[in-house]
TrEMBL record:
<protein>
    <submittedName>
        <fullName>Glycosyl transferases group 1</fullName>
    </submittedName>
</protein>
<dbReference type="Pfam" id="PF04101">
    <property type="entry name" value="Glyco_tran_28_C"/>
</dbReference>
<dbReference type="InterPro" id="IPR007235">
    <property type="entry name" value="Glyco_trans_28_C"/>
</dbReference>
<feature type="domain" description="Glycosyl transferase family 28 C-terminal">
    <location>
        <begin position="614"/>
        <end position="691"/>
    </location>
</feature>
<keyword id="KW-0808">Transferase</keyword>
<dbReference type="GO" id="GO:0016758">
    <property type="term" value="F:hexosyltransferase activity"/>
</dbReference>
């Protein structure tokens, strides 16, 4: 009889009451949805009482068939073994597990100790020796977070750990609740989690600062509240305490306005699953600064004494509150969603197979295969926007998948694209070689998963991309290569053109001034007109645009869009520009990029908007002061909007200075060469004049070229047909 070979075996003690079991359940659900099989191998931990039952989430997985429970002592076979909870191996297991596997990972989901004792929970060297005796020296050791990684290396500086953390995952759709009316007349703050004294602030003072005894807030606690009451010696009148397990966490979170979590300073929190759950549920999170490496700008960071002022501030600003909720959800879906787990399984050779179709009298029609659009990280949304411009114009029966390293992955998702997020090298902090291997692996996985006919890459051909083209030569690879490179840069990228089957080059208004490396490499390149996300017909009328942006009628309005702020400091000239325009009677709107990593400095009297695409509302403005990046530049020219270009000089490849100079020479725009000098005031003094702006609009109408996105889409569609017919 042939033994069943499972895709994944998860070995753990399934009686753990908290995050360990919840994490296992999430991974099993992700695997089941992808058509992967999972077997659970139960090994009793010496730290749990023998009569404790399995966690309800684990029981449910076994009951509904998402996973199979292996009989104790029976040998199982799996392509990948995942071991969770190193404390299981602080002693030799009473019944040694019998698992045959191809690869194995031990997930270090708990630090060896805390600030007071680096080996309080387990001695890493002893656990490693015991685990390698059981499963061999080839097992991978994967920390669940930067905190755990640091503590393991503190215990054993020579420990060989995976380059990428095996982070928690969550299905945001199961937790999400759209922002609704307030839960009560005062803000409700709360927290949930397993009862443990170290999960609470150590002193009465810190405890009451984080969870105030104040009539203008309510405090709700699910799990461990009795420990806090014991520490205080009383239960504040505004506190409501629920016993752990009496309410489902998702239901509990939907009764909160803020999730606040502070703990004992000696505790090394392995990850913070409850924080992730709160963000996924649409509840703003207030935590300590040490959680920033995990939750970035999705959480709010303060000290216990800063909780109440922050709650009051956000309670009074409903729009900011709503934006925080939405950003938190986007962050969780892009970084910790189920696709991230499937990607790391694919990195280890575990990929979902196609589901078996039911028996039919005739074979079902073959669904059209998609086009995969891959964008670089970039510092703005240029790479991603160009690809989406093409993708939204592909024939309706052509599936489109967007894979991006950009923080703007959720922008593509909101625009209706099936979107895959690939964390960039800068986000992961990886060495170049490790990053290249990860990128190649992720691209191979996405190709195997979505089976595209054509892969179009708007990026320079990094090592990982070139390696992926060689590993998957059966698809058609297209390099979408923006022109106007800075002189004497990028020759090494041009040399890699041969890795692609085709090159597609969007047009450039300033082409006569282009002296970059792409100019001499146009043989066989498919050239189209300048690509913009929208066509002129997509723009709303001036009155509608002004109403949407809350601009006052009867006064001229100016838009400032100087970029994402991720290359250089764009804040310094903003105040001068805004002051000059306001003095001239303009309403001033600042466009904050959807992927800006730092809040934009906002001078007094200006209005801040974060809208994508802002180009939809350009007709509501009388003047735009903009960087000269490819997308914004060509939108302003194509739509006839009077513009002053302030070119960014810090870009690696894009020659914004040359582009802006050409537009100014052609009479289609003005240019500020030195925003820190007298040039700024001189040019703005011209730009605020109605006759100058009218002349710029007329000239744009004379020289504007047709959007090339449609032609690019038609060409890619033809490639898919050629490939399908070959």
């Amino acid at each position: 009889m042939t033994a069943t070979v499972h895709d994944v075996a998860i070995l753990s003690d399934f009686r753990y009451p908290g995050g360990t079991s919840a994490s296992i359940a999430a991974e099993v659900r992700a695997q089941a949805r992808a058509g992967l099989t999972t077997v659970l191998v139960h090994v009793r931990s010496p730290h749990l009482k023998a009569k404790r039952a399995f966690h309800p989430l684990i029981t449910e997985l076994i009951r509904d068939g998402s996973a199979t429970l292996a009989p104790e002592g029976e040998e199982v076979t799996a392509r990948l073994l995942v071991v969770r909870q190193p404390r299981i191996f602080t002693e030799d297991p009473a019944v040694p597990p019998r698992v045959r596997f191809g690869r194995a990972v031990l997930v270090l989901n708990q630090a060896p100790g805390d600030a007071g004792d680096p080996a309080r929970y387990y001695a890493f060297a002893e656990v490693r020796e015991r685990v390698e005796d059981l499963f061999g020296a080839g097992i991978e050791w994967a920390p669940i977070s930067p905190q755990v990684r640091a503590e393991v290396l503190r215990a054993d500086p020579e420990a060989r750990l995976t380059a990428v953390d095996w982070h928690e995952i969550i299905d945001g759709a199961e937790w999400w609740r759209a922002p609704a009316s307030r839960t009560s007349d005062v803000p409700v703050i709360g927290r949930h989690g397993r009862p443990d004294p170290v999960k609470w602030p150590r002193t009465k003072q810190e405890l009451l600062r984080a969870y105030p005894d104040s009539p203008d807030v309510r405090v709700r606690v699910l799990g461990g509240g009795d420990l806090a009451v014991e520490r205080l010696g009383r239960q504040p009148a505004n506190w409501e305490i629920l016993e752990f397990g009496t309410v489902e966490p998702v239901e509990f979170l939907h009764g909160l306005d803020f999730f606040v979590y502070f703990h004992d300073p000696d505790l090394i929190e392995a990850f913070g699953r409850t924080i992730m759950e709160a963000l996924a549920a649409g509840v703003p999170v207030i935590v300590g600064e040490h959680f920033r490496p995990l939750f970035g700008d999705a959480a709010l960071y303060t000290t216990p004494e800063g909780v109440l002022p922050l709650v009051r501030e956000l309670w009074a600003d409903r729009e900011r509150y709503r934006q925080i909720v939405l950003h938190g959800r986007e962050f969780i879906e892009s970084r910790y969603g189920y696709p991230s787990h499937l990607a790391r399984l694919a990195d280890r050779g575990i990929r979902p197979g196609a589901p078996r179709p039911p028996a039919l009298s005739a074979p079902p029609p073959t669904p059209p295969r998609p086009v995969l659009l891959v964008s670089d990280n970039g510092v703005g949304l240029g790479h991603l926007s160009r690809l989406m411009a093409i993708g939204r114009r592909l024939p309706g029966d052509t599936p489109v998948v967007v894979a991006t390293q950009s923080h703007g992955a959720m922008v593509a998702h909101r625009e209706g694209f099936l979107t895959e997020y690939i964390p960039s090298r800068s986000v992961l902090g990886l060495p170049r070689q490790s990053w290249s291997e990860l990128l190649r692996s992720r691209l191979e996985h996405l190709i195997d998963l979505h089976r595209p006919v054509v892969v179009a890459v708007d990026s320079v051909p990094h090592d990982g991309i070139v390696a992926a083209t060689r590993a998957r030569p059966d698809v058609t690879w297209v390099w979408v290569r923006r022109p106007m490179w800075r002189r004497d840069t990028g020759a090494e990228w041009i040399e890699r053109r041969s890795a692609f089957d085709h090159v597609l080059e969007p047009g450039e208004f300033a082409e006569p001034a282009d002296e970059g490396a792409t100019v001499a490499d146009r043989d066989g390149v498919r050239l189209v007109g300048p690509i913009t996300y929208l066509d002129p017909a997509d723009l709303v009328e001036p009155e509608q645009a002004r109403a949407a942006l809350e601009l006052a009628p009867g006064r001229p309005a100016a838009l400032l869009q100087l970029g994402a702020g991720n290359i250089n400091d764009i804040a310094s000239p903003i105040a001068r520009i805004a002051r000059h325009l306001r003095t001239a009677g303009f309403q001033v709107v600042l466009a904050e990029s959807a992927i800006a990593t730092e809040p934009m400095a906002q001078p007094a009297g200006t209005h801040l908007v974060r809208v994508y695409p802002i180009s939809r509302y350009l007709r509501g403005f009388d003047l735009v002061v903009s960087a000269a990046g490819y997308n914004s530049f060509h939108e302003l020219i194509a739509f006839g909007i009077p513009a002053v270009f302030v070119p960014n000089r810090e870009t690696a490849l894009d020659d914004q200075v040359c582009r802006a100079r050409f537009a100014a020479a052609a009479g289609a725009a003005l240019i500020v060469e030195d925003p820190d000098g007298e040039d700024l005031d001189r040019v703005l003094s011209r730009a605020v004049r109605q006759d100058v702006r009218d002349a710029l609009s007329r000239r744009c109408a004379e020289v504007a070229r047709r959007n090339g996105a449609g032609d690019a889409a038609d060409w890619l569609a033809d490639l898919t047909l050629e490939k399908a017919g070959s």
